[in-house]
Specification:
- By secondary structure, this protein is α/β, with parallel strands linked by helices.
- The protein has one domain.
- Helix content is about 20%, strand content about 15%.
- It has two helices and four strands.
- The protein has a four-stranded mixed sheet with strand order 1-2-3-4.
- Strand 1, helix 1 and strand 2 form a beta-alpha-beta unit.
- Helix 1 packs parallel to helix 2.
- The radius of gyration is 14 Å and the shape is globular.
- The termini are far apart.
- Bound molecules: iron/sulfur cluster.
Length: about 110
């Protein structure tokens, strides 16, 4: 892989919102969503750009990504673009979808998207 062309990993903090709002939080999480976080359309453009770059691993994190009402819509777009890797810090789970990652990442249990 040529790192002059693309990074190996891109991490998007989908929201600053997280019910726990831990004092040590790297994302400076707060209970509510920040008014300047990406809109759904802006997020879709970001995902398209990540897909166009063919970044092997794309992490959706936060805050708590599930605080975004559009998160499953965005994850479905990631699935279509084959770039998603989902992180849910509150539940301490890291669930990969399609990625360009080699095994064993693909062997991990995929999240069921409603
Ligand atoms: S659970 Fe994780 S994301 Fe949520 S406030 Fe704590 S450290 Fe931040």
């Amino acid at each position: 892989m040529n790192f002059d062309e693309r990074p190996f990993i891109a991490i998007w903090e989908t929201t600053q919102a997280c019910d726990l709002a831990c004092v040590h939080c790297r994302a400076c999480a707060q209970p509510g969503r920040h008014p300047l976080e990406l809109s759904t359309n802006e997020a879709k453009r970001l995902i398209d750009e990540i897909a166009a770059l063919q970044v092997p691993v794309f992490v959706l994190t936060g805050g708590d990504p599930l605080k975004r009402p559009d998160i499953f819509e965005l994850v479905k777009l990631c699935l279509r673009q084959q770039v998603a890797y989902f992180a849910d810090p509150q539940r301490d789970t890291f669930v990969p979808f399609h990625t360009r990652q080699p095994e064993p990442a693909r062997q991990m249990r995929p999240l069921r998207v409603p």
